[in-house]
Amino acid sequence: MTVLVFLDSAFPDGRPADAGVPQLMINDLGVTRGDGIFESLLAVDSVPRKPDAHLDRLASSAQLLELDIPPREAWERAIATALALHAEAEADDAGHAGRAAVKLVVTRGVEGAAAPTAWVQVTVAPDAAAQREAGIKVLLLDRGYDSLSAARAPWLLLGAKTLSYAVNMAALRYARQHGADDAIFTSSDGKVLEGPTSTVVLARERNGVRTLLTPERRSGILAGTTQDALFKAAEAAGWELGYGPLVPEDLFAADGVWLVSSIRLLVPVRSIDGRELPFSAALNSELARLADAAL
Amino acid sequence: MTVLVFLDSAFPDGRPADAGVPQLMINDLGVTRGDGIFESLLAVDSVPRKPDAHLDRLASSAQLLELDIPPREAWERAIATALALHAEAEADDAGHAGRAAVKLVVTRGVEGAAAPTAWVQVTVAPDAAAQREAGIKVLLLDRGYDSLSAARAPWLLLGAKTLSYAVNMAALRYARQHGADDAIFTSSDGKVLEGPTSTVVLARERNGVRTLLTPERRSGILAGTTQDALFKAAEAAGWELGYGPLVPEDLFAADGVWLVSSIRLLVPVRSIDGRELPFSAALNSELARLADAAL
């Protein structure tokens, strides 16, 4: 089932509502203009994973959009309320609610109204275990922007997780229609950016030194919360860390490439544009364990 | 008042609904992903202006997004229903309903459902007469894309009028915070593109030849329905027409620049980046009359 809890200053713990009936006004700027932001996080047995990182990024997206959003404590309480309701509905005999996808959404509100619309939605998480094990095929797709756009043009909202995801969805459709499962965006000046819904991570071993790399954030990509947690855990386990400018050749020369995100976690990329990548099941398991322990 | 009519195959003339209460599901892809398209058109005394051009462009946007939308006749009937309801509520003693803004919206529908969500919304049109007379100040803002992106990368959805308008809204906020009223986007390779919600048109007279110009569509801009109507009327009145690649210097060298759109119509640009532009009240009235007669 889908649990829905609105953030509402009259309800300190959030206002539960029926997700099975219409709840949004037709002229909410979230739908008429894609004018809002969101986060997706994982909860395991009703415990949210890295909520602080997600609430930090929500605040950062809000700042980029100049959106006045409810305070952190209101989110924490609404998330707790939603997860409790979800557990009531979904928990097994031992009281385990399993893996849930928690979505936080804030829109600029109804046209002409001064208040944002904000809610928490909880659903059973989609099962991505097969993809995490078998891996996926990916296409490189041009994102159109050069890697310096973010610094030059703040109105492009690069680095904000907005509701205006039509291009991300179109890129996924294009990839699927062309024999792949997912995409990696590149900048118009040839740098590796990110997936439509994930962060790119690559591993390489040179002369006994093991390094995890990800594209530099100033290229206008989202700050990956799962990539960040993985990097911290890997560093503690002896890995070196690197923040690119990365080009496609770096992906092909790596010992492994992953698309990393909060719900699907670490998915190994087995081919890019039809060209096979190195893959080690042992390395895949090692990084998955590191990330899992860190979250 | 706001009139709302859903397109619904069970209701050939559309299904009227109360716009004052929530009507959209929380997990409609229109709000969660900005995944949908729209049109805004003017109606005067319940007669829609250039409905065919708007329905053509809606179909073209749908094709770019691979969105299966209701047939044209369903839109025409729903628009007629909505305008009749609006006239009932708003008409004066002489039966005139005045100027109304008609919005057509289609989203990819509720997550997991196969059907789009589609509706027609009618409100009283905002009064832009003062802007049409006095003109506006504009900033040039980089859109990040180069002018060849549209041809190279169809997944960028350039040329589609999508619900993912967060960047357009951010550009308008940026312009207003920096002493202007509106913006004109430029490409990363320095070409003039379009306004966040309008088409750019410029007029120039050289050796007795009067020409209207607008940026070329293949640069990834929306096909302007009002610009197109104006151009046809102007051609019949003896103007030459041109479709640029245009650069900012062309704007400064023109005899007049306008932002053109369906509801606000022709708004003269009085300055760009603080630099004053030539302005002729006579030319402004002449073009406004041409457009008005054509619509």
Automatic annotation (TrEMBL), chains A, B:
Enzyme Commission (EC) number: 4.1.3.38
Pfam families: Aminotran_4
Single GO term (MF): 4-amino-4-deoxychorismate lyase activity
Keyword Membrane: no
Organism superkingdom: Bacteria
Protein family membership: Belongs to the class-IV pyridoxal-phosphate-dependent aminotransferase family.
Name of this chain's protein: Aminodeoxychorismate lyase
Organism from which the protein derives: Arthrobacter zhaoxinii
